[in-house]
What we know:
15 helices, Lysozyme, elongated, Serine Threonine Protein Phosphatase 5, Tetratricopeptide repeat, Lysozyme-like_dom_sf, mainly alpha, Sel1-like, Lytic transglycosylase, 2 strands, 2 domains
Amino acid sequence: MHTPIHPRRRPWARLLAALLIAIAGAAPLAAPGSAPALGPAFAKTNVGEQDKDPAFDLALRARSPNQLVAAAARYENGDGVTQNTRKAVQLYCKAAAKGETQAAVRLGQIYAFGRGIYRDQDLAAAWFQAAAGKRDVIALRLLKVLKVEGKTKRETECLLDPPLPPAARFASRPHPAKGQVASLVRKLAPQYQLDPELVLALIEAESNFNPRALSPKNAQGLMQLIPATAERFGVRDAWDPEQNLRGGMAYLRWLLARFKGDVQLALAGYNAGEGAVERHGGIPPYAETRAYVSHIIARIN
């Protein structure tokens, strides 16, 4: 089902104002030098880009922390390149791994504001604490703004999307796809340039292969098309299995094109709506959507 979900709004405007005041009043950042690497502060990453960008690839190979931070700032602000926070995070992360305090501060600010990626205040605090450990003035001030007391239990990591919950039990279940539905999916999927196994996993998550499935939000059939989506993709009878499959596959192909082939973003869009993915700059931080994407990815893997 892909009815948009609207999470509870939080008072981020006040936090944003406080952070801006703290940044404006802080002393300039110390230049990188012989300070030891952040070590455990650079724990893990799930970053990665599918689009080709020779300039980014070249910047990512830089060895100098100064060069990495400068390139990251260009991508963060769209200075001479297409603005891309996800690429900026990759570059800042590499610089942070080399002990660059400014990179750790910038990562904290990105996660605190949620600019271009999902907002994660706990992860922001972890990065600020990594920089504060080296007596960075801005990081120390922002920790006070965030009202962080004591050492956060969160490890620093470079995430572009909210962490997905484990799905081992789901993945180990026998696949129920069989008979006419599976045959029809394998026949139709190539027409939409889709992997049949991806479509089957999506159908399992949506309707468990029940062509008469009806959700409380009026999503219908195998691929749980709401009436507006069915009409949008030319489905006259959502209860007809073949029409439902064609409409759902057309929508999934459209989402993959919209998100430049990113399967996880396309799945998130199918569940929560493409607008939610765009607003959050990645998989929306909704428990249902995160579990949905995790389950399907586990199944196809």
